[in-house]
Amino acid sequence: MNEALEVWIDQDLCTGDGICVQYAPEVFELDIDGLAYVKSAEDELLQSPGAVTPVPLPLLQDIVDSAKDCPGDCIHVRRVSDSVEVYGPDAD
Length: 92
Description:
Blueprint: E1 5-9, H1 19-23, E2 28-30, E3 36-39, E4 45-46, E5 52-54, H2 60-69, E6 75-79, E7 85-87
């Protein structure tokens, strides 16, 4: 897949296990509230509800694995072009 992808976390479902941070600390971070958030390309924590960040191609597999292994099913990866979820709980 060579289409641009973005990832976001639904904090309402996040269990704070930190599995995503173990897989891709460049993209995910646990905040002081114990929940995971995505980070910008500039390493800034994005705390707005529904905040998205681009998926760096070299980290795609790590991000996909984090979505698959997330106990809260809260990690969503979607195509930028049409916002269709390709990995995560709402993917076909």
